[in-house]
Write a structure and sequence with these properties.
With about 450 residues, the protein is mainly α. The protein folds into two domains: about 1-190, no CATH class; about 195-440, Orthogonal Bundle (MetI-like fold), CATH 1.10.3720. The chain has helices spanning about 1-10, 15-20, 25-40, 55-60, 60-70, 90-125, 130-140, 145-170, 190-200, 200-235, 245-250, 255, 260-270, 275-280, 295-325, 330-335, 340-370, 370-380, 395-405, 410-435, 435-440. The protein starts with a helix and ends with a helix.
């Protein structure tokens, strides 16, 4: 009988539950099937079979039309303004993704319906008495957390997961400035975009050089800020420094001011006619203006220095908190043993500070790897580099993707690069997580 109940529920949702004398639960599953059928039947144009195969799919129900559009990305471009029937590849892709996601959700409910009918019947044959009300009480008590978060999870699926799937699929198409629907339809190209990034010299060379600079930038930006923040934290704690709270408040100001404002101010100050060059010329330290933003070396150096100004207060505050927690008895014991200030720092302070701030360092490296604001608002990715494909000398991967998307409309390449960045960031983050004490203890 348990197989009969499962088979009946597979054909008509909830019928197996009705055989198990759980009519309320069976009715709920049956209503879900009715919703699925109505969504397909009444979302399309009835009687489309007379118009041929293409017309049938184009005007069919929600799921048929969506899956057809996802597979084909359309078949009729809009060659002129007089064309009334045409396809838009991107809209079809998006509609197809939504249809596929909704269909997966209904499929999960269908499986739940079959498994529930089988397991319930098995328990009944074992001598248990199970009613629909008792089932819902047990479900509420055992799965309360999942029931409460279910609406939020549905929103996450359609607000976050669907756009992510769309962005990934774009990498496997030829969606760029030459194929903008509805004038020209987008086509599936498989791994061609990824192969072009690797095989075509100018794309591959640009990717490798920008990737190297991105990694160098991420580590330089992080560790320069960390070292300077550590230095300030140690200086403020020094006994010879008067009014440490005042100095700490002053040093925290660069972090309190909105970063974008500071970047735009520095961009003006670092111009050839800016305040920094004028000051250096006036006091005689230089004979001609330094090209802070127009020379690749100076532009990259400027990025690192400005990032130190914006980033060191965070590490200063973080390290200051760690230093306070170190027992003073350790330093007193070290002084008795004859250790000077440097040895106390090397043996006591630095190991404990580094152990406490290591996760924040890795998080900062990850953040700087995608620190779009610093690049965009300070240098704009410049100065131009003729050896790079649609990128400047200070562009990192994320700013290059921005240019490819909004300025060059190379959506497929931008999507492919985003996938590569995700793989890199996810790998580093997973490696960092596996090394944490909390993960090892779990």
């Amino acid at each position: 009988m348990k197989y009969l109940a499962a088979f009946c529920s597979a054909l008509v949702w909830g019928s197996g539950q009705c055989l198990n004398k759980q009519k309320i639960k069976g009715l709920i599953f049956f209503v879900m099937q009715i919703i699925l059928v109505c969504l397909e039947l009444f979302s399309g144009t009835l009687g489309v079979l007379s118009g041929g195969v293409e017309r049938t799919f184009r005007n069919a129900g929600f799921f048929t039309r969506g899956l057809w559009g996802l597979v084909t990305l359309g078949t009729i471009p809009r060659t002129s303004s007089r064309v009334q029937v045409y396809d838009h590849s991107i809209m079809l892709m998006l509609a197809g993704i939504i249809a596929a996601v909704v269909l997966v959700l209904f499929t999960l409910i269908w499986f739940w319906n079959i498994i529930d009918a089988y397991r319930t019947r098995k328990r009944i044959e074992g001598g248990e008495e199970i009613s629909s009300l008792q089932y819902f009480r047990n479900l509420w008590s055992s799965s309360f957390e999942y029931i409460v978060i279910a609406p939020g999870m549905l929103l996450v699926v359609f607000i976050s997961i669907v756009p992510i799937i769309f962005a990934i699929l774009v990498a496997f198409t030829n969606y760029n400035m030459n194929f903008i629907p509805p004038r020209r339809l987008v086509e599936w190209t498989g791994f061609e975009t990824f192969l072009n990034i690797i095989k075509i010299k100018i794309w591959g060379g640009t990717f490798v050089k920008i990737f190297i600079w991105t990694v160098v930038w991420a580590f330089l930006a992080t560790f320069s800020s960390y070292v300077f923040g550590l230095l300030q934290a140690l200086l403020i704690r020094a006994k010879a420094v008067k009014f440490p709270k005042l100095w700490r408040s002053i040093f925290i100001l660069p972090w309190a001011v909105p970063g974008i404002v500071s970047m735009m101010v520095f961009r003006v100050m670092l111009n050839k006619e800016g305040a920094i060059n004028q000051l250096l010329l006036k006091i005689g330290l230089i004979s001609e203006a330094i090209p802070f933003l127009s020379d690749p070396f100076w532009a990259r150096l400027s990025l690192v220095l400005v990032n130190v100004w914006l980033g060191f207060p965070y590490f200063m505050a973080l390290i200051s908190g760690v230093l306070i927690t170190i027992p003073q008895e350790l330093y007193e014991a070290a002084q008795i043993d004859g250790a000077n200030a440097f040895h106390q720092f090397r043996v006591i302070s630095m190991p404990m500070v580094f152990a406490s701030t290591a996760p924040q360092i890795m998080m900062s490296v990850t953040f700087n790897f995608n620190n779009f604001n610093m690049i965009y608002f300070l240098t704009g990715g410049g100065p131009p580099n003729p050896n790079f494909q649609m990128a400047g000398s200070t562009d990192i991967l994320i700013s290059w993707i921005f240019k490819l998307t909004l300025e060059q409309r190379m959506y497929n390449y931008a999507s492919a690069l985003s996938i590569l960045i995700f793989i890199i960031i996810a790998s580093v983050s997973a490696w960092n997580l596996l090394r944490t004490r909390a993960f090892k203890e779990d």
